[in-house]
Design brief:
Blueprint: E1 4-7, E2 38-45, E3 48-53, E4 63-67, E5 69-70, E6 73-74, E7 76-78, H1 101-113, H2 118-121, E8 137-142, H3 150-153, H4 158-166, E9 169-174, H5 191-207, E10 212-217, H6 219-233, E11 241-245, H7 267-277, H8 279-282, H9 292-310, E12 326-331, H10 339-343, E13 353-358, H11 364-367, H12 369-388
Parallel strand pairs: 8-9, 8-10, 10-11, 11-12, 12-13
Antiparallel strand pairs: 1-2, 1-7, 2-3, 3-4, 5-6
Helix pairs in contact: 1-5, 5-6
């Protein structure tokens, strides 16, 4: 997914003027592009921007050309050039949020249009003989940067063994485009495009009323968070709990981020940045990533996934807290993440908050067998508690 721009002009005219072509004398389109809409850059020629409208962010022509400035006044600005985000955190309570019926109708339409895409995004669903005729419970899983849904769906783990043994539990491990079975598809670098896409894939599974929990790791925690905000915005049922491990709360101040923006890193620096997320893993089992033939494949995946968080700007200051429990764990072997950064997740719930530090690394909890067994056992014990409480 390309660079995102935000429409900041047209506040007094209902949006900005859009033309069919690059030439400022080309045909003017009848509909204006709404102020506040997000667009993906397709081309930038001089002061003219060719764009694609990001679905669900505003109204206007899906494609067209816009002027970046008029008489020195900004009409559209790169998202990364906006301020550092609103880091004031959530509001004081978990007050109800009125559903956006227009957005809900849009998401329902997207869900119907993408029904056939489900097997690509949840490739192991049928491997586990899903869907069940009458599921009692579901788990939605969102993977870390540079990885894939297989982190959760490998057979023979405490988690998948429990799911299979129960017979009335489904899990959906979501795959982000641009890897494994979707290697040739465009990678997303912004939650504003990724999360609506993911929700369109699982919409019916969230909307049908089957109780569920969400499990995200590393950047998957921010995927989960933005997805939860979207779920609430369209009026869908909330989860029984969210397990969001190995990453700071999303309102952690930008000026305190310890990592580096990867678009500014050369190849050697990018390798070092990747290594620092878990030296034990990347000097052990994960060292294969840095072999030239592997790095050629992994680097673009890493860079796209890293942009999800290193160019993220929090935009939910003052939003109501969640009213379900959060389980947010820190990994003792972390380089970048500190305990207090993960503890900030406690700001986001009025329900119980569970913080722990586990004796493992940022990635060894998924890739080192003894660490994975311990981590998955603890996670499964938490999930079992919500299942048995139904």
């Amino acid at each position: 997914m390309g660079i995102l721009w935000e429409v900041v002009g047209g506040t007094e005219t209902g949006g900005i003027l859009i033309r069919e072509g690059q030439d400022t004398k080309s045909t003017q389109l009848p509909e204006r592009l709404a102020t506040g809409a997000l667009v993906e850059e397709l081309a930038l020629v001089g002061g003219r921007l060719q764009y694609r409208l990001v679905p669900g962010t505003g109204t206007g022509p899906e494609y067209g050309w816009a002027s970046v400035k008029v008489s020195g006044k900004d009409l559209v600005v790169p998202r990364e050039d906006r301020d550092s985000g609103d880091n004031c955190g959530p509001g004081a309570s978990s007050s109800p949020v009125e559903a956006d019926e227009g957005l809900r109708a849009y998401m329902e339409g997207e869900a119907k249009a993408r029904a056939e895409d489900f097997p690509r995004f949840v490739p192991k669903y049928k491997v586990f003989k899903f869907p069940l005729a009458a599921p009692k419970f579901r788990v939605f899983c969102f993977h870390n940067a540079g990885s894939a849904e297989s982190n959760y769906s490998a057979k023979g783990t405490p988690f998948t063994d429990w799911v299979v043994g129960m017979g009335d539990v489904e899990f959906l491990s979501l795959q982000y485009p641009g890897r494994e079975n979707m290697l040739k598809e465009r990678r997303h670098t912004n939650f504003d495009t990724l999360c609506p896409l993911l929700l369109s894939i699982i919409y019916d599974k969230v909307a049908d009323g089957v109780p569920y929990v969400i499990w995200g790791h590393s950047v998957g925690t921010w995927v989960s968070f933005e997805l939860l905000m979207l779920i609430r915005q369209v009026g869908l049922p909330a989860p029984k709990a969210a397990l969001l491990n190995g990453f700071p709360a999303p309102h952690f101040p930008v000026d305190q981020w310890p990592w580096h923006q990867n678009r500014k890193l050369d190849d050697a620096q990018m390798r070092e940045e990747t290594l620092l997320w878990d030296k034990e893993h990347f000097t052990g089992l994960g060292a294969m990533v840095f072999r030239e033939e592997q790095w050629d494949m992994y680097e673009p995946i890493m860079r796209a996934d890293f942009r999800l968080f290193d160019e993220y700007r929090f935009k939910h200051g003052g939003a109501p807290k969640f009213d379900f429990p959060l389980h947010c764990w820190h990994m003792e072997g972390e380089h970048y993440n500190k305990p207090e950064m993960i503890q900030l997740w406690g700001d986001w719930t009025t329900a119980p908050f569970d913080f722990q530090t586990l004796p493992m690394g940022h990635l060894t909890c998924f890739y080192k067998p003894e660490h994975k067994k311990e981590f998955f056992t603890k996670i499964t014990d938490v999930i079992k508690g919500y299942y048995t409480a139904l």
